[in-house]
Amino acid sequence: MSDKLKQIINKQSEQQDVGLDQSEDIVQLVGFIIGEEEYAVPILTIQEIIKPISWTRVPQTPAYVLGVFNLRGSVIPLIDLRVKFGLSSKNHNDETRFFVLKQGDEVAGFVIDRLTAAIRIKKTDIGPPPDTIASEDSMIEGVGKQDGRILTILKVNKLLARDF
Amino acid sequence: MDEFQEILQDFLVESFELVEKLDEDLVELESTPDDLELLNGIFRVAHTVKGASSFLNFDVLTHLTHHMEDVLNKARHGELSITPDVMDVVLESIDLMKALLNTIRDTSSDAGIDVSECVVKLDKISGGDGDVPVVEATPVVEEAPVEVVEATPEPQEDEIDYDNMDADEIEAEIERLLAQRQEEDKAKRAAKIAAGEKLPDIPSESGDEASSKPEAKAESKPASAPVATTPKPKATSKPKETKSSADAKAAAPAKRAPAQVEQTIRVDVKRLDHLMNLIGELVLAKNRLIKINDDVEERYEGEEFLEELNQVVSIVSLVTTDLQIAVMKTRMLPIGKVFNKFPRMIRDLTRELNKKMELEISGEETELDKSIVEEIGDPLVHIIRNSCDHGIEQPEDRIEKGKPEIGTIKLKAYNEGNAIVIQIDDDGKGLDPDMLKNKSLEKGIITEKEADSMSDKEAYNLIFKPGFSTAASVTNVSGRGVGMDVVKTNIEKLNGIIDIDSEVGKGTSIKLKIPLTLAIIQALLVGVQEEYYAIPLSSVLETVRISNDEIYTVENRSVMRLRSEVLSLVHIGDIFEVDRILDTSEYSYVVVLGLGAQKLGLIVDSLVGQEEIVIKSLGDYLKGIEGVAGATIRGDGGVTLIVDVVALMQIAKGVKASAATAQASVAQISNEKTQASDYKIMIVDDSKTDRMIMRKALDPLGVTLIEAADGQEALNILKSGDHNFDAMLIDIEMPRMDGYSLASEIKKYNKYKNLPLIAVTSRTAKSDRMRGVESGMVEYITKPYSSDYLSSVVQRNVNFKSEFL
Fold it and tell me: What residues of chain A lie within 8 A of the CB of B631, using their CB?
């Protein structure tokens, strides 16, 4: 029994070592779908992911700002990424989630269509955004390729920046 | 360095507090020059600041305060009488002292301000009649000014004397001094300073501390000097002599009451702010608890545990309220803190303007939140200056008019409900409405037409317009035409209201009404369509219900008559871009907002009630949205926006669309049915077959039919606002959201209050029917039904025009 236990422990520590070794050139992301495409943001920028709750409309804001919602006592803006990315808004369904992103003091909730998965991707698999859309103002950090799918990695600071 | 910073901070806090009190005392002193107690107090301030500043090596400040001290010392010994001229110099030196303290605060050094001129003046005063050798102390004091800077060597000799003694000798010496001092009465105290074994006097003290700290430390050991700010060398004797004063007050004259331990502690404002935030959270939680309690009460009426729950909830809410008040009180400061500087100001103005004025202050103990106390100072300065400059007449004019020669300005503060009122009255010439109007016309602030229709009260408020100044000549007291404008904006920033009243020849009275605190406020919750907004109650004057034909249109703007006034109206929906979907109600609720002098009627759909709300910011992402001051979290966990009344008044000026007519036209468009397909009916049923059957039954009518497969979908279609439905056919048994829930959801929206909901179901029990009625269904059709029956029920409910058949 104890041998077995040891084995397991050894195995685990080995795995951890492997994890550590790779951590330097591995990026952890969380993927989500908006419209037809898959996007991702670094896992550490996500404060939490919640199911849709009610929100309050705020006047005199662009259409993609849905309003504000109450997250355990904090009033947080809610942004519809579909509208922000030029798609038509869609009714929320069972798969809709609010992504609460945080960077520094800036916090905002983003409506996404569906969550995919937590993704570990090698840095070498991430390429720069296509030249045609690469610019300072672009919201795209880079494009990741994994198992034949393409992920658009977004700049969180751009998402959280007010642009109206 | 850190330690130094810490000491410096303490020094600054203390000094500013002392100086603040000084102004008031000095002015009082001028009227009662013989008040020894007062003199002593003032002297002690100068002395304390000097002691501490020398310890911190602020030479300029030390130099100045030292000379001040000389003058004051003479005065309290009766060698110098306080004449207005003397007072001018003393006040000037205090101003310099303030300037120096400010410089120190900003730069940690006291360089850059020239005090020599003032010092010369002080010297002249103290030297002028200082030769009178009433008390032996005089020579010492005389000597002092010369010594300030070079004093260093001499006291050091004193110390060497002390150094040469061993501990026992020092003890003995102290004992002796102590005994001696206790014997001597107050008048001879100064004499004793010179006589009593060369006890280092005031100047030497400064020298010591600045130059010989190490020695000082060594020396202070036997006496175990307890307080850091106590000048070390003299610590040997002083702490024992005057234990009551923690600061350098060796020469403080009066034997003061024995140790009065102050029952206060200093707390960082940030901590209080944090505490206030936490209380805010608690208040929100309390509101929520109360709401849940109400719900539970409704559902489990008569159950025993309810009573217990009720008790707990009321205790929690009671304690929360008490706690909130208690914490608010810790942030409260007496308004006297602000009032203190006015006697001095009036005094200065009296001399500057050659008028005779008196200030009467009352209610200075009235307390206000710290943040408000800080903001209220400037507006009050402007108002009082204005009263002095423009209100009070020259003495000869006053006598001519049969008024007392001396003009009176009354400054009083008192509580009124949840607000504090600060009232500034003067008995000057008052405001002349006609003159104000003419002036405004000249300057193009108002048009002739506006001037004609203006009431006196409105005319008074012209003084708050930017660019208005009534003084014919611009003095440096007031009259640059910005003052009163600033007053208004500042007061409005605090959610305050200004009221102004005047009578020509009798005087003017200005009332500022300011809420007690900024973080938690009372608000009126109003509804528009399905949205809610919170309006700070302090800006709400009243609410009225009017019928729609009481709304008139003048120059493309809605107005109403409120008693004798004409009130301009704006619909809250126009300001906050709320889509107004038909509202058939023939009544409107008008919230009359008052802000400073302005008034505005805000039309809302419903009044929800008064609630205590905690102001939360919308964060960086959404800050600066016009008309929204912040948000609050309601008892049900939802977020409600708080209306920024100041901005709202601004926006309202631009809103031309007449609320009433817009409403009417919307109503007409949606009501007008020109063909059968204008009627829209939604069919909600999870069974496709059933939907088909209904469709078949209604198709012959030619109405537009829209289908939804369950309650949720139906609600979404309804909410999207793409269609204006005239009726809904609802199945009861459905996945996700059943018919009852759907009906009660729909009925929550104001705009759907009158939408006919028809239940179509196979449930036939009476209880089901009852539930249907409760949830807002108007008809109950049981399956199976005939097509004709369904058709006739629908026709009846949508008022189907027979010509379309």
Answer: 56, 68, 75
CA dihedral B86, B88, B93, B97 (to 10 degrees): 130
Rounded distance between C-alpha atoms, residue B41 and residue B29, angstroms: 11
Is B577 in contact with A65 (Cβ distance < 8 A)? no
Partner residue opposite B622 with nearest CB, options A68, A91, A105: A68
CATH 3.40.50.2300 domain residues, chain B: 673-804
User: What pLDDT is attached to residue B182?
Assistant: 61
In the predicted model, what is the mean pLDDT of residues B338-346?
A: 84
Distances (CA, A) of B635 to B272, B284, B313, B315, B639: 25, 7, 14, 17, 9
Q: Which one of B47, B63, B66, B77 is the catalytic residue?
A: B47
List where CATH 1.10.287 sits in chain B. 269-330
Q: Does A77 sit within 8 Å of B641, measured CB to CB? A: no
Q: How far apart are CA B258 and CA B398, in angstroms?
A: 51
Give the nearest chain A residue to B632 (CA atoms): A75
Q: Residue A76 and residue B619: Cβ atoms within 8 Å?
A: yes
DSSP SS3 for B150: helix
**Residue B95 pLDDT:** 81
Q: Between chains, do A68 and B578 touch, taking CB under 8 Å as contact? A: no
Give B673-804's CATH code, choosing from 3.30.420.10, 3.30.450.20, 3.40.50.2300, 3.40.50.300.
3.40.50.2300
Residue B616 carries which DSSP code? B
Classified by CATH at the fold level, domain B2-241 comes out as Four Helix Bundle (Hemerythrin (Met), subunit A) (1.20.120)
The dihedrals phi and psi of B568, each to the nearest 5 degrees, come to -80, 145
Contact A107 B638 (CB under 8 A): no
Cβ distance B639 to A75 less than 8 Å, yes or no, reads: yes
Identify which of B17, B94, B617, B95 has the alpha carbon closest to the alpha carbon of residue B333: B17
Residue A16's CB is within 10 A of a number of other CB atoms, namely 10
Residue B625 contacts A, CB cutoff 8 Å: yes
Whether B69 is catalytic is yes
Q: What is the biggest distance separating any 2 CA atoms in chain B, rounded to whole angstroms? A: 124
The crossing angle, in degrees rounded to 10, of helices B116-128 and B59-76 is 20
Q: Tell which CATH architecture fits domain B334-512.
A: 2-Layer Sandwich (3.30)
Architecture of domain B269-330: Orthogonal Bundle (1.10)
Q: Which residues of A touch B (CB under 8 A)?
A: 54-61, 65, 67-70, 73-77, 91, 105-108, 160, 162
Closest CA to A75 of A46, A119, A109: A109
Please say if B47 is a catalytic residue: yes
The pLDDT tens digits for B312-328 are 999 998 898 888 878 87
Banded model confidence at residue A110, pLDDT cuts 50, 70, 90 = very high
- Candidate list B24, B66, B67, B69, residue with the active-site label: B69
> Of B475 and B225, which is predicted with more confidence?
B475
CA B706/CA B730 separation, integer angstroms: 12
**Residue extent(s) of CATH 1.20.120.160 domains in chain B:** 2-241
Q: How far is CA B611 from the centre of its chain?
A: 19
Chain B's closest residue to A62, CA to CA, is: B622
Specify the 3-state DSSP secondary structure of B590.
Answer: strand
Residue (of B536, B500, B673, B675) closest to B611 by Cα position: B536
Please give the CATH architecture assigned to the domain spanning A23-160.
Beta Barrel (2.40)
Please tell me the pTM assigned to this model: 0.47
pLDDT tens string B421-444: 899 888 888 888 888 888 888 877
- Higher per-residue confidence, A11 vs A30: A30
Task: Write down the CATH number for the domain with range B520-667.
Answer: 2.40.50.180
DSSP string, B452-496: HT--HHHHHGGGGSTT----SS--SSS-SS-HHHHHHHHHHHTT-
State the pLDDT confidence band at B610, using cuts at 50, 70 and 90: confident
